[in-house]
Amino acid sequence: xVNIVTKxxxxxxxxxxxxxxxxxxxxKLKYRRSYLGILWTLLEPxxxxxxxxxxxxxxxxxxxxxxxxxxxxxxxxxxxxxxSTKTAMRxxxxxxxxxxxxxxxxxxxxxxxxxxNFIIFLISLIVMVGTGIIFKVKxxxxxxxxxxxxxxxxxLAIGTSMILSTVAVFFRDMEYLxxxxxxxxMYASAIFYDPSKMEGLAGWLLKLNPLYCCIESFRxxxxxxxxxxxxxxxxxxxxxxxxIVVGVYAFYKKQDQFILYI
Amino acid sequence: MxxxxxxxxxxxxxxxxxxxxxDSLKDYVIxxxxxxxxxxxxxxxxxxxxxVEQGDRVGILGMNGAGKSTLLKVISGVFKxxxxxxxxxxxxxxxxxxxxxxxxxxxxxxxxxxxGAVLGYSKEFIDSKYDxxxxxxxxxxxxxxxxxxxxxxxxxxxxFSIATIVEPDxxxxxxxxxxxxxxxxxxxxxxxMSMFDKGVTVLFVSHSLEQVKELCNKAIILEKGKLIAAGDxxxxxxxxxxxxxx
Lengths: 262, 246
Description:
The complex is a heterodimer. By secondary structure, chain A is an all-alpha fold. Chain A is built from twelve helices and no strands. Chain B has helices at 25-33, 68-76, 108-118, 123-137, 152-163, 182-197, 209-215, 233-244, and strands at residues 4-18, 39-53, 57-62, 83-88, 92-95, 170-174, 201-205, 218-223, 226-232. The A-B interface holds A 14-15, 17-18, 20-22, 25, 28-29, 32, 97-104, 171-173, 256, 259-261 and B 15-16, 23-26, 28, 76-80, 94, 96-97, 100-101, 103, 105-106, 110, 113-114, 117-123.
């Protein structure tokens, strides 16, 4: 057991540079050939937030304090999760030509996808700062705690992606199913409505959604200057760790067969 | 006694050739109900067992479909053998698919780093060898052009230059001695020959017995995935001539 672990650490060290290169490649190529380039990381959330504020503002504006910042916070976290899991799920197949020709530890593909999306997400948080200033959000010390939900979200994205990318190699339908799944998750994440109004089944779905736990905790600490609910964060952390354990196990068990299916 | 550089221990490699490609859930359900899923098992390699000692240059002979390329891919780690195991010692330079891992949208310069990383080089190493790579590939003017605009010859030249910048312990060649135009071919052969002179261990796949005789001191023959002969080049080449019937 110890041998296996030291062997893996050795391999991981050797390929750290490749992981860095793959992350760099993801960021560089995402906006290459568009005129505004990396500026889109900032423009896109601004534009969608404006649209969402106009569309839903008429209904919810009075209920929710600092509505545009509220929407932006939810949307940024959700779109990181959906973008990164979608690209990571396809990453094994997208790199089929490479996998068939040279040996590279295969987990590098989904993990590098998550990491480059996370870096783009961190850049896009600049928009939060700007909007916060415009809508007079007063920063408190809790802003430092708001890093925690983001880290848990990163773990959750890695775990889900390991599961999804393994499944998607054998059943390509997963790519379409996951789009539907993501839509469900979006509606269960209270991005543009007041979560306290949700009761019954819908309320339960919200509570059970680890992504929503991260979004809520992030909003409370970053925007409203309150502490998040420890129970909910513990639940989200536990959930993420379980997906990672399941995902890593499944990926590890099946990775040698990938090449026969892609 | 010399050290074993490559040990191929009773390696078998099985592929499932499904008659119809099943890659969606719908297909799978329909076909398993109608009983159409049938896997044809196909053993590309069956119980292949041999060792390569340090400094040996081994030619791998065989007809098309004998399993030569599969064997090289198993040795270089792309395939995991269904049965048996592989042990290699030292740095392998597989000159198999030059430029696998190139990204077409990336420029030549960016691809040097990417492909280098794929081959397991460190950043410092590539930094120090960058000029040498560019010079050897003769692509200085085009190094900032995305390689989707390269000709196939240019891509191979760049791939070859990156892959051979290391001093490998084991060199795996799949008839790549003919890369690029006549001038570059001479240069690349000279480079490989200089590695030979330094005593690198070589695995060389070819159809051409003459090439193998010229380069190798040992040889093995594969037939339908089975190892049917192994030994010094002269013995094996006689068997091979008998096998090929002429």
